[in-house]
Amino acid sequence: MSLLVHLLACAFGTGSWVAINGLWVELPLIVNELPEGWYLPSYLTVIIQLANLGPLLVTLMYKFCPGRLKAVVVIYMILSIGTVSCFLLAFFWKETTVVAGELHSTAFLIITFFLSLLDCTSSVTFLPFMMQLPAQYLTTYFIGEGLSGFIPGLVALGQGVGMIKCVNVTQGWDNMTETNTTSSQTGHYSTESQYQPANFSTEIFFFFLAGMMGLSLVAFVFLTRIPRNFERSCENLVADQVVFTASSGLDNSGKDPAGETESNELTISVNLQKQEASTLPSKAKYSGKQFAFMYFLVAWVNSLTNGVLPSVQTYSCMPYGNTVYHLSAALGSMANPVACIIAMFFPNRSLLLLGGLSLAGTGFGAYNMAMAAMSPCPLLQNSLGGGVLIVLSWIFFVGTVSYVKVMVGLILRDKSHSALVWCGVAVQMGSMVGALAMFPLINVYYLFKSGDSCNTNCSV
Q1: pLDDT of amino acid 273
Q2: Is residue 254 left, alpha or beta, with left meaning phi > 0 and alpha meaning psi from -120 to 50?
Q3: 345, 250 in Cβ contact below 8 A?
Q4: Would you give the end-to-end CA distance of the chain in angstroms?
Q5: What is the Rg, in whole angstroms, of the alpha carbon atoms belonging to the chain?
Q6: Cβ–Cβ under 8 Å, residues 394 and 328
Q7: Spatial distance between the Cα atoms of 456 and 447, rounded to a whole number of angstroms
Q8: H helical segments located in 65-135
Q9: How many other C-beta atoms can be found within 10 angstroms of the C-beta atom of residue 175?
Q10: What pLDDT does residue 182 have?
């Protein structure tokens, strides 16, 4: 029975962010099909920030109307609507309409907003539900949450990305029409980029995401039917509870801790507190300046990871080719859960180390931004080394700042409930400022230039 519950908790955790993580790793195939093109990631960052309205409303309901909002009902809605949305995305993601005189992929953007709304809301509903189960299952849930980014990245690697083929197209004067491809015409000829198909289509990938959401829904159905006497029989497993306390920092530091105030009554006993005192290091004392430094780190790294850098990933990677962009997106998505696992087994609360890692992550991010600013002709564009460097830079950028976010979240979680609340505020403020600052630079002032591998001349 215990092994079954662990498997259910893991499957339930994968449904938290699998939809949005899946969309990000699929972008290398999507940007070549939708009219937004290289601008698409900047749209997604703003959409995801707008979707934080969901957890805000849930948090306010928890605060001002306690007991009125049933977490189980909300979770059923999240997983059911998420499954249907991923299914619909497979059929309608290419549908476009004219908005303000320009062609936009309205179906994709609208469905993405709802998926973002659901995933963001899961941050303040899934964890309070898991707090009702014995504490050892929290670790398994966090592993499943990490797999929500790792599994789509792994599947995307297997999917591959279509190679680009440059084709000379003959155009007669009687049938010449405007196209969406960039071309350099000589007489009656134009060079056109044609993208070869991947190992399997984007539609199949979206069906896969729908399947993962459906699996999470089924796991949740079974979790709600666990006998209460089983829960009580597991509450005295002190050793397992200590594992939960040590690994609770895997919770995303950006999550709103609403609903967690009752968790101590449900999972922590007097014996656990005594065991913690003898097995875990004593809590360090931090000054006001040190707390301000930690909040600054949280806001800074989240502005980079959730707003600034994702908006320009196409510009930093696409000039090196679709394969480089594909590897950067997939491996970068997998670097996040790997960093969380490292933080679980090798935690280090030294503010000097965390500051150094933040500085290193900022350096990798600065390199990514510099390559984006030089698009469509970044450094070492036509060499293997250039592509390897940008992929490694994205992996180390995501990995280093993810470790920082986890460890700072752990420190603030141990401090107090209110400290974690302010951590969530810093996350959202940093993410929002980063996304809103980059959107006009990309879509209004056009500071970043797109290119075409078949027609862009970088020899000058």
Answers
A1: 40
A2: alpha
A3: no
A4: 67
A5: 23
A6: yes
A7: 17
A8: 71-92, 106-122, 126-130
A9: 6
A10: 43
Cβ-count burial 43-56 (b if 16+ within 10 Å, e if not): bbbbbbbebbebbe
- Amino acid, res. 363: G
User: pLDDT tens across 198-220, in order?
Assistant: 889 999 999 999 999 999 999 99
User: Which DSSP symbol is given to 70?
Assistant: -
Q: Which residue in this structure is represented by tokens 């302010």?
A: 422
Contacts of 166 (CB under 8 A, 6+ apart): 191, 192, 193, 194, 453, 454
> Which two three-digit tokens encode residue 313?
């990933």
Answer yes or no: are the C-beta atoms of 16 and 148 closer than 8 Å. yes
Here the tokens at position 410 are: 């752990």
Q: What share of the chain is helix, strand, coil (3-state, %, to 5)?
A: 70, 5, 25
Give the tokens for residue 125.
């509903």
- Give the C-alpha separation, 430 to 425, whole Å: 8
Q: H/E element holding 14?
A: helix 2-14
What confidence category does residue 39 fall into, taking pLDDT thresholds of 50, 70 and 90? Answer: very high
17/122 Cα distance (integer angstroms): 8
Residue type, position 202, single letter: T
Q: With a threshold of 0.85, does the pTM exceed it? A: no
Give the bridge partners for 192, in sequence order.
167
What is the pLDDT at residue 231?
53
Give the mean model confidence (pLDDT) for residues 19-25: 94
Q: Which range (76-90, 225-239, 330-344, 364-378) has the least confidence?
A: 225-239
Q: What confidence score (pLDDT) does residue 228 get?
A: 60
Least confident window among 38-52, 53-67, 248-262: 248-262
- Count of CB atoms within 10 A of residue 291's CB? 16
Q: Which of 346, 347, 459, 458 is nearest to 413 (CA)?
A: 347
Residue 421: what residue type? Answer: V
CB distance 255 to 127 below 8 Å:
yes
Contact status, residue 412 vs residue 404, Cβ threshold 8 Å: no
Cα distance between residue 211 and residue 176, in whole Å? 44
For the chain, percent of residues with pLDDT exceeding 90: 55
The Cα angle at residue 32 between residues 28 and 37, in degrees rounded to 5: 95
